[in-house]
Amino acid sequence: MQSISRRKVLSLAAQLTALATAGTLSPAYSAPAEAAAEIAKFTAGVVPDAGRITIDLPEIAEHGSAVPLAIDIDHPMTPEIHVVEMLVVAEANPWPRIARFHFTPMSGRAMVATRIRLAGTQTVHVLAKTSDKRILMAQRQVKVTIGGCGG
Amino acid sequence: MTNKPRIKVPDQIRKGEIIQIKTLVAHDMENGLRRDQAGKVIPRKIINRFTCSFNGKPVFACDLEPALAANPYFVFSVRVDESGLFNFTWTDDDGT
Question: Less Cβ crowding at N or C end of chain A, within 10 Å?
């Protein structure tokens, strides 16, 4: 277990806030075509809300073959209203869709952590669908030194 | 069945508590892009679906793509209101 200093937490919080603001300010949402198509398919016309999703991904990944990814969505998980589905898209991967996660009210908390492959420096997008048909979205940039898709 | 998965679940918890479950299964997750020494493409072979249910009720599931790293590892949470049994499944491209 590694301990996290107070300073680190504060700086991370500041970074996240900066990231969130940057995300909301950018007018046109530009992702390469294939990734954009995946995202469009998932949102099905609903305009996504920014925020609520915390993506924990290293800023610089030395090797793209196993990049730790943790996602936590700040959303109630009751039978009436909960997060149903979550899509992770990496816009520069050969197949942009990374995974689709399904949650139930029994999940208690919409969080997941796993390890992913990233082909290169790019932005990773996370979209979540709630039971009342809203879409939440967040993105995070990662620098990848060595790609992780072989080939 | 290829490999024995490793699963970490607390033995005893309080009712209604939200717990974290960690799972790890050994699998190459061949993404269909790599080539062998002869230059032939190694065919895709990945786990494409992971599910977790508790007392028969689905809790968490994931559709995996080749972009999941080898030896897929997941951490997710579950709210537990009763004693019971967790059931985990991993499904491969060839159905095993």
Answer: N
Other beta carbons less than 10 A from residue B91's beta carbon: 14
Helices within chain A (DSSP H only) = 6-25, 33-43
Backbone dihedral angles phi then psi of residue A48, each to the nearest 5 degrees: -75, 145
Residue B28 distance to chain A (closest CA, Å): 12
For residue B26, the enclosing domain spans 6-79+86-92
Burial A75-108 (b: 16+ CB within 10 A, else e): bebeeeebbbbbbbbbbbbbbbbbbbbbbbbbbb
Which residue ranges of chain A lie beneath pLDDT 50? Answer: 1, 18-30, 151
- Rg of the Cα trace of chain A? 15
User: What range defines the domain where residue A135 resides?
Assistant: 31-146
pTM for the model stands at: 0.75
